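Service request form, structural biology core

Requester: graduate student, group of Dr. S.
Request type: structure prediction, single chain
Budget code: on file
Notes: please return the result as structure tokens.

Sequence provided:
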Amino acid sequence: MKLFRDLLDLIYPPRCPVCGAFLCDEETSHEEGTPFCRPCFKSFLSIESPFCPICGRPFEEGNPEDHVCEDCLRRRPFFKEARAPYLYEGGLMSAIHEFKYGAKSFLAKPLGLLLSSFAGRWLQAKEGLLLMPVPLHPRRLRERGFNQSLLLSREVARALNADLDFLSLKRIKYTKPQTGLGSEERSRNVARAFQVSRREAVKGRSIVLVDDVATTGSTLNECARALKKAGCREVFCLALARTSTF
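Core staff response, request fulfilled:
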């Protein structure tokens, strides 16, 4: 198999999935352990402390220690913790945009590898996890052709050797896109938009909700609300990227 892969790389040299640069070139050779070229990977901005230990929101200034943000103090989310490895900026934002809106579903593999690597570190001490992607409404699924969160979930589930359920949590309300909406508008837009169709599938389980991007966390929180109502034990939220401000 290695000989076959080497021959295939010789005929079709691998390219960076973000910028298209050949990974065999010295200046754009891939970052070790990733399928991305070095310049693109270095443009991915990791989220570092300080951040809110509940919603994962990064702080730009002030207290250098992790601390609960004002929003989580005022209204505790239904999920236990939410995390994302990167900020939704630069090259990664472009890659996610192409993946989500440009019908480039092949990006699920390289982006899923990034998310899987982070998930393995964050969730390594937790057992018996059930992964669930944030669902799309059937109408939106027909429009887009695939659920990007499901494609990412498959990569993470495979890496963690965890169960995956993409049928029990459903979006029952067709909502307008969250892009461009304020925090309160986002919450109202997705209110009561999700429902668990099979309570026995989630009862007593520790669930990891997977999405591509987290902004205010409204969508993840509404999913967590439905899951907790159906009897799950706890909900963790995992996104590939999140915005730095609400």
